[in-house]
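Work Package 4 report. The design task specified in the project plan requires that, given a folded chain encoded as structure tokens, an amino acid be chosen for each position. We show below one input record used in the internal validation round.
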């Protein structure tokens, strides 16, 4: 098995120092070397850095991704800078858990390449600042779900269920237990018969979004990145990609542990 690695780091002082230490530790392992075609990819920063790194390496299922948190929240980043020695030693002796996670494949039509995202895709109206709602026909496996009116619609993966999905009252889905697609409404208009709560679907489902003909353009974000090149799409078909990403995690560390540590820690401290 290849022992090549790459480090993709933010440029703040803590991230750069963490990258330097990690590089030294990895190079001390016999056979490990830095490469432009790596087996192991380490993202140093916050959650956004990991999402950007996965995209930078083309959602390559042959890579093994690991996140080291030097950001604020770091829900996706499984390791801290103080755990570098533990990370490298467990990697050296093969004692790390490898989790295979699903990501989205978004067919934007018109002979364009599909768009991938690990967390979520968000569809909004171009005139959101003027409070003009986006109007979308939403189909699930070619069956009409609803005609949505509101600020926007989000579709997220199980991994992305703890991201932007949470502030819109979406559900947390354990990515280590199930692969899902979740449709979450964003600011639905209650005057219309439209979706007010998220709906979770299993893998294999295809979700199609069709904007109203009078919609001039859309604002589309994939994993927090504004995609100006997708503002004129006529249909958007979203499903889970057949490939999966591989990421490193500490052994015996579950989604329950992460929720308790990252989302409920403040509640625990107040008691």
């Amino acid at each position: 098995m290849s022992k090549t690695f790459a480090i993709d780091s933010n440029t703040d002082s803590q991230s750069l120092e963490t990258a330097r230490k990690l590089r030294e530790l990895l190079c001390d392992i016999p056979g490990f070397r830095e490469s432009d075609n790596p087996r192991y990819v380490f993202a140093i920063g916050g959650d956004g850095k990991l999402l950007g790194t996965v995209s930078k390496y083309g959602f390559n299922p042959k890579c093994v991704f690991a996140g080291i948190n030097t950001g604020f929240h770091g829900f996706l980043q499984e390791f801290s800078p103080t755990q570098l020695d533990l990370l490298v030693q467990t990697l050296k002796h093969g004692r790390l858990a490898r989790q295979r996670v699903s990501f989205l494949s978004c067919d934007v039509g018109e002979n364009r390449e599909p768009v991938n995202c690990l967390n979520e895709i968000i569809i909004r109206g171009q005139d959101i600042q003027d409070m003009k709602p986006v109007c979308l026909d939403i189909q699930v496996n070619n069956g009409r779900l609803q005609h949505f009116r509101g600020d926007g619609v989000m579709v997220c993966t199980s991994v992305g269920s703890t991201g932007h999905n949470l502030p819109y009252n979406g559900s947390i889905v354990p990515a280590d237990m199930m692969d899902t697609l979740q449709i979450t409404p964003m600011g639905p208009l209650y005057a219309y018969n439209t979706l007010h709560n998220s709906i979770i679907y299993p893998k294999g489902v295809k979700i199609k979004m069709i904007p109203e003909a009078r919609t001039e353009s859309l604002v589309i974000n994939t994993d927090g990145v504004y995609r100006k090149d997708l503002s004129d799409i006529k249909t958007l078909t979203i499903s889970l990609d057949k490939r999966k990403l591989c990421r490193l995690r500490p052994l015996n560390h579950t989604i329950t542990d992460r929720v308790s540590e990252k989302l409920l820690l403040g509640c625990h401290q107040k008691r």
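The first helix runs from residue 13 to 27. Validation will be extended to a larger panel in the next phase.
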